[in-house]
Amino acid sequence: MTPHLGKGRSHASALVLSLALALSLVLLVLPSSTPPATAATPLTVSQAIGQQTGATQTVRGYVVGQPTATSTVVRSGFPSDYALAIADSASQTSTSSMLYVQIPSAFRSQWGLKTNPSLMGKQIEVTGALSAYFSHPGMTSTSAFALAGGTTPTEPPPSGGTSPWDSTYYAPAIGKTGSALRTSLHDIIDNNTKLSYDTVWTALKDTDQDPNNTSNVIELYTGRSIAKSNNGGGIGQWNREHVFAQSRGGFDTSAGPGTDLHHLRAEDVTVNGTRGNKDFDNGGTAVSGCTDCWTDADSFEPRDAVKGDVARMLFYMAVRYEGDDGFTNLELSTVSGSAVPRIGDLDILLAWNTADPVDAFEMRRNDRIHSQWQGNRNPFVDHPEWAAAIWN
Q: Which of 46, 63, 157, 231 falls 20 to 30 Å from 249 in CA-CA distance?
């Protein structure tokens, strides 16, 4: 007779298996005592600036430009795809509130600002080591980029850069080119407060203030930092330089183009006299007391660091003053020594605009003139590419 032991063991095994299965089902239904892991909340830019420990973190911020030096971030005319700056506000202009992000080669085609200027103003999340870049609080060894929400950019980049003012101040001009763009910009910027020539002294002490010494101003051509109080007409003092020379524009110093801060700058009295009413061009002999400045009988070449500044001031004057509000119709010319009211050389100015991108000093100046003095902006500081769109 075959014993029943084996059959009894089979029943026991089945019972154990059934109990185990039931227990598994119960565990699936019951809530877990440990919640599932979730991604850590990204740091803000201000938190990241304060945590430069080399640790790998994800940071969320708005793209506000491309760092090119420790205290310089450009907002247009981006020279490369190697880096970007992010901040907790899309309108932030203070570099001390920005995080400089290194862009490794694998990410440059999609996240570099030269190739993708439409990223300006977008909120993104980046992951990398919180460590200095350009000797500034930053992120290096970056391993991941995404638009806030976890997506990657899909829209094609526009032909030019972007500005925080595009959806408001410049809204009527966006998408236009040529004469239509010029007309639209003129209509935007010609509504401005007119200053007296005496007020210009006070205004320049604000707009041209040395960022490293608030008691001084920076002279345009020499680059020298000089006491705000040392202004006047004597040798060694600074005075009010008209970048679009008065005699070339046919205007005086009554309220209007002769007092427009967008082309008035602090400058050494002697160097201002050397420049006189000459056109701007390359070449000549060295100017005494003005390193990297050159001049000849009919032209003046400023130092490289402000060539773009000069060009953009003149672009502004040519668009702001069209002869429809009682002021002279100012124009730019490619002919040296051309008749009033013209100044040049336009081709050189367009090249300078490209070679010398907008810097932090120029951006601050534009903001101060807009917010504190005249109520209008220089569109070619916010959008340098608009010069070529109009004159090319």
A: 231
Tens digits of per-residue pLDDT, 115-134? 888 888 889 999 999 999 98
Residue 210 has a CB neighbour count (10 Å cut-off) of 18
Residue 374 has pLDDT above 50, yes or no: yes
Reported CATH class of domain 45-147 = mainly beta
- Per the listing, tokens 């109990």 go with 19
Give the strand pairing for 123-129 and 138-147.
Answer: antiparallel
Structure tokens, 300? 């003046």
Q: Where are the alpha helices (DSSP H) in the chain?
A: 5-29, 45-49, 108-111, 178-189, 197-207, 246-249, 269-275, 307-320, 346-355, 360-368, 379-382, 385-391
What 3-state class would DSSP assign to 339?
coil
Instruction: Supply the mean pLDDT for the chain.
Output: 87
Identify which has the larger pLDDT, 16 or 104.
Answer: 104
Residue whose tokens read 């030269």 = 114
Among candidates 49, 80, 58, which has minimal Cα distance to 67? 80
**Pair 199, 259: CB distance under 8 Å:** yes
Both tokens assigned to 202: 């006070």
pLDDT of 31 higher than 90: no
**The residue to which tokens 């290096």 are assigned:** 140
Identity of residue 3:
P
Please say whether the beta carbons of 349 and 314 come within 8 A: yes
SS3 88: coil
Give domain limits for the chain: 45-147, 178-391
Sign of CA dihedral 231, 315, 64, 184: positive
Beta-sheet pairing, 264-268 with 238-242 = antiparallel
> Residue 217 has what pLDDT?
98
Higher pLDDT, 40 or 243: 243
